[in-house]
Amino acid sequence: MSELDLNDYWQKSIRGENNLPKINWKKLANKTSNQPLQVLKKHLNANLYYGVILTIAYAVIIVMYPIWQVQIALAILIAFNVWFLYSGWNYRQKLKQYQLQDQGLLQQLKVLTQNFQTWLKLSERIAVFIYPVGVTGGFLLGGVLGSGSTVGEFLSIGFVQIALVICLVVLTPLSYLLARKLNHIAFGKYLQKISTMIEELENES
Fold first, then answer.
1. Cα 89 to Cα 142: distance, rounded to the nearest angstrom
2. Which of 56, 167, 183, 190 is within CB 3.0–4.6 Å of 36 for a Cys-Cys bond?
3. Is residue 8 part of a domain?
């Protein structure tokens, strides 16, 4: 087909003179939603929702149980959650902006993937210092409520301090490993798919 034929065909298409197949936009949208970026955004949204729920729960516990040691621990957890939610929301907005762009898609895709991997690793590293705080706060809250004593009286029991140390030694690495595993399940496979897409696009260019 020559250039003139193509121009003529295009003009007829605009006027509706060609019998072009009707596009099923609903089907196309469903297909698009299965793409790695869409799934990544969906899972990120779920994490943000859970983060909001946890933050509200921590705030409720602070109000309900005026134990200052526990309140400090929960305040630190809330601060971490606020950072996580803020940074996660910013990344979510970047994902939305990516879909609206029509130039430099490959470069944008690479930057988005690199930024997300950096953010995910940073949150995991920061969480290593947050888990001991959460374990300690939960241990003290459960112990004080269960024994009906003050924090000082509860900690004065010899085996309680040993039990706290054991909990910190065991639960901190377990929490870290569990978080990494959950992140891999939620994001790892799709980040790998996006990396594969980037490689294929670079090879074609």
1. 33
2. 190
3. no
pLDDT in tens, 126-167: 888 999 999 999 999 999 999 999 999 999 988 999 999 999
- Domain count along the chain: 1
Q: How far is CA 44 from the centre of its chain?
A: 4
Q: Which residue range is the domain that position 115 belongs to?
A: 35-204
Residue 155 lies in a domain: yes
Q: Is residue 130 part of a domain?
A: yes
pLDDT along the chain (205 residues), means of 10: 46 48 42 61 89 95 94 95 92 71 65 85 89 94 93 91 94 91 85 80 69
CB under 8 Å to 78, separation ≥6 — which residues?
55, 58, 59
Q: CA 160 to CA 112: how far, in whole Å?
A: 47
Within the chain, residue ranges assigned H as helices are 3-15, 25-33, 36-64, 68-100, 105-147, 151-155, 158-183, 189-204
pTM: 0.75
pLDDT in tens, 98-115: 654 544 667 777 888 888
